[in-house]
Design a protein that fits this description.
355 residues, alpha/beta, Rossmann fold, 9-stranded mixed sheet, 10 helices, 9 strands, globular
């Protein structure tokens, strides 16, 4: 027989607070300058066939050795005049402080920079010049992390060193989280979000803000390979991405939020700036991440730069678009720091925000 129901009303169960969606700011920048269009044409003519050859090679120890050599070759490159760097040793990996031109000795406020390179190449040398530009634009030093990459560690372990560096800033340097902005390009943009998500998982406070340049955030290539930008991206990296993902995450589930940050619960992440070229293959990842961040209540701005190549900021003063983007990234960092002292309003980056 059914049991008699109690006449006493049961108290309602407490429900977890629901994130309130925030407006998604999409800031479209056009039109591409003649110089940037010339760069894109050069990429299509020179880099595209080379990437196609690389994609046809086996992913083996020789391939990883060639990838590792890239950062050693870049050791000859000089950072901007007036840049000061100092190595910081960590157990198993390294990092360096980069004080861009005009940036003083104070490390009260810092950028934690995570370089790109497809999770297998590049490092402090390849990115020192660009990191110095970001440091100068923001007026603060950057801690650039030389995290261990495949094959030294599995793909899913690369974030460990990034979190170690973040924890070091918090606990050893005594840097308040509101005085840290985490920034990265391409694979480093992936690690920017992975670091914030792991920090949340480990009970660490969130940084003041995140900035990701042309990040890859969904390891499932289905959407990217079906996107119109497969034909428009001047580097045509689709085949290379397929080979790379097979080697790096073939043993993992691309739908796992710990593998693809765009699929994670993004609630509670700090204000975020995403930048991408309108025709690059990874644009759709930035677009989807921006949409999901806004739905999770995270203040987010997506800057879409007309027909710019992947991580176009690397061209520095050569391109007007990269000059403007670097200046605006610097402004975003500065505003992230001042928000802690003001009313908490997210930075507004409009078309005329750069000086």
């Amino acid at each position: 027989m059914p049991q008699a129901q109690s006449s006493q009303a049961q108290p309602p169960q407490a429900q977890p607070p629901q994130a309130q969606p925030t407006p998604l700011v999409i800031d479209r920048r056009g039109t591409a300058s003649l110089r940037s269009r010339a760069v894109a044409a050069g990429v299509r003519r020179i880099l595209q066939p080379r990437l196609a050859k690389v994609a046809a090679l086996p992913v083996d120890d020789r391939a990883f050795a060639r990838a590792a050599a890239l950062d050693r070759l870049a050791a000859r490159a000089r950072p901007p005049r007036g840049t000061h760097c100092r190595s910081v040793p960590f157990p198993g990996f390294g990092a360096e402080w980069v004080h861009g031109p005009g940036v003083g000795r104070s490390r009260e406020r810092v950028i934690l920079y995570l370089h790109g390179g497809g999770w297998v190449c590049c490092g402090l040398n390849t990115h020192r010049r660009m990191v110095a530009w970001f440091s100068a634009a923001a007026g603060v030093p950057a801690l650039s992390v030389d995290y261990r990459m495949v094959p030294a560690v599995p793909f899913e372990k690369e974030v460990d060193d990034c979190v170690t560096a973040y924890r070091w800033l918090l606990e050893e340097c005594g840097t308040p989280p509101e005085n840290i902005v985490v920034m990265g390009d391409s694979a480093g943009g992936y690690l920017t979000f992975a670091t914030a998500l792991r920090a949340r998982e480990e009970g660490l406070p969130q940084p003041a803000a995140l900035a990701a340049l042309s990040p890859m955030l969904d390891m499932d290539l289905t959407g990217k390979l079906a996107h119109a930008n497969m034909e428009l991206d001047p580097s045509a990296p689709g085949a290379l991405l397929e080979r790379l993902m097979e080697a790096l995450v073939g043993h993992l589930d691309a739908a796992d939020p710990k593998v693809s940050p765009v699929r994670a619960d993004l609630t509670g992440l700090p204000p975020t700036l995403l930048t991408a070229g309108s025709t690059e293959l990874l644009y759709c990842d930035s677009e989807e991440m921006a949409r999901r961040l806004a739905a999770a209540g995270v203040p987010v701005t997506l800057q879409v730069w007309d027909r710019q190549v992947h991580v176009f900021q690397m061209f520095g003063t050569f391109l007007p678009e990269s000059r403007r983007s670097i200046a605006e990234l610097g402004r975003f960092v500065r505003e992230a720091f001042t928000r802690a002292d003001d009313d908490g309003a997210p930075p507004a980056l409009g078309p005329d925000s750069a000086g």
